[in-house]
Write a structure and sequence with these properties.
By secondary structure, this protein is an alpha/beta fold. About 35% of the residues lie in helices and about 15% in strands. The strands form four sheets. Strands 5-2-1-6-7-8 form a six-stranded parallel beta sheet, with helices on both faces. Strands 9-10-11 form a three-stranded antiparallel beta sheet, covered by helices on one side. It has a two-stranded antiparallel ribbon with strand order 3-4. The two termini are about 30 Å apart.
């Protein structure tokens, strides 16, 4: 779907590469600009095999690497010239950094009015926090997710994955698609401003509006292993590990059927959701006593699902790669890297009728495509590229 679209990728770490990772799998040509001598810092992220980072490979498969020193005016000028030949620029520098190098949207779009530029940052391009540095867990805290995660009487906890980075990346990916669509109608490009904090704050379905709508009666709080508004809802001890289930008023009778306890439907403790919330501990004990009768979590889940109870296992990501649903849907994709060998990565998260690229995309060596890009897009000859290399403006490494 993005075949013919060229992207200049000025990103590193995770939030920015998460945008262009999705774009390259949709068929875009992505030119990843890296800073010599070491390139994207995530090239050294462990664990590594044969000095090759699985993290870097996962986020940068299929991209072309141009290693140029944009701290030097000549390097920044090369990027400015390249920007006039591309459709999209993606960057995740601290706001103001690119402006100081003459690589901001106003400058680049003057030569390329149809240019779309997506800037991904912690706190956005404007506002009192725009110049602050931000990492994923800081965004989780600022956006209120940490305050809702953990035991009610315990400290706030972060989600143990790059949720803010990847969430912002998906938001930018979507925005770029709409910007490209709008360009087909107007011919104009645009500057997209995606904040990690904004993107995470957007996920709140209840916590923002409910306190106002309830006149302060509802107060968001850490919920521990049970979901505050509904019972039963949360994680329950199974015979082997943990099982998640949630029953609203439409599924509660299915739970009584699964437990073989139809009389609980008339029990005054459990005949309303409010009652089930007040007597949550008692209901949890009944459910977990029933789960303990099974030999395996899979058997218990099968019994619940047969009765129509929404439920599922709590999987460790390392174990999820063998789950039949993950395998059949391509949620897990096996890729073959020339240095690491075969290993699993998360697959493309969206399904289309069109076939998407599979396992043949390879992450680039540092500066692997210097000559191809500078001769192909800018018309430099081999001697000119060699001179840039000799002057240290370009860099390359095999890993």
């Amino acid at each position: 779907m993005l075949e013919g679209i060229t992207v200049l990728d000025l990103t590193q770490y995770l939030a920015g590469p998460a945008v262009t990772r999705l774009m390259v799998e949709m068929g875009a040509e992505v030119i990843k600009v890296e800073q010599p001598p070491y390139g994207d810092p995530m090239r050294s992220q462990g664990p590594r095999r044969n000095r090759r980072s699985g993290f870097f490979v996962q986020q940068n498969r299929g991209k072309k690497s141009l290693c140029v020193d944009i701290r030097r005016p000549e390097g920044a000028n090369l990027i400015r010239r390249l920007a006039s030949h591309v459709d999209v620029v993606v960057e995740n520098f601290t706001p103001g950094v690119l402006e100081g190098k003459g690589l901001d949207y106003a400058t680049l779009s003057a030569d390329n009015p149809g240019l779309i530029m997506a800037s991904v940052s912690g706190f956005g391009q404007t506002g009192p926090g725009s110049d602050l540095r931000c990492f994923d867990f800081i965004a989780q805290g600022y956006a209120g997710l940490m305050d809702l995660t953990g035991e009610p009487d315990g400290p706030p906890l972060f989600v143990g994955t790059g949720l803010a980075d990847t969430n912002a990346g998906v938001h930018a990916f979507a925005a770029i698609g709409y910007a490209l669509f709008n360009r087909t109608r107007t011919g104009r490009g645009t500057h997209i401003d995606v904040s990690m904090v904004d993107a995470l704050f957007h996920v709140h379905e209840t916590a923002v509006q409910a306190p106002a709508v309830s006149d302060g009666e509802y107060r968001p709080r850490r919920q521990g292993r049970h979901y505050q508004p509904v019972s039963p809802a949360g994680s329950f001890h199974g015979p082997e590990g943990w099982i998640v289930l949630l029953c609203t008023v439409n599924q509660i009778n299915s739970l009584w059927d699964a437990l073989g306890r139809p009389e609980l439907a008339d029990d005054p403790r459990f005949d309303t959701n409010d009652g089930r919330i007040r007597h949550r501990d008692e209901l949890t004990a009944i459910i977990e006593e029933w789960l303990a009768r099974f030999d395996t979590d899979a058997e218990a889940i099968a019994a619940l699902q047969e009765a129509g109870v929404p439920c599922g296992p709590v999987l460790n990501p390392a174990d999820a790669i063998d789950d039949p649903m993950f395998v059949e849907r391509g949620t897990v994709r096996m890729i073959d890297d020339p240095f690491i060998g075969e290993f699993p990565v998360p697959g493309f998260p969206i399904r289309f009728d069109d076939t998407l690229p599979q396992g043949d995309l390879v992450a680039p060596l540092l500066g692997e495509h210097n000559r191809e890009i500078l001769t192909g897009l800018l018309g430099l000859d081999g001697d000119e590229v060699a001179e840039l290399e000799a002057r240290g403006l370009l860099g390359s490494k095999d890993r």
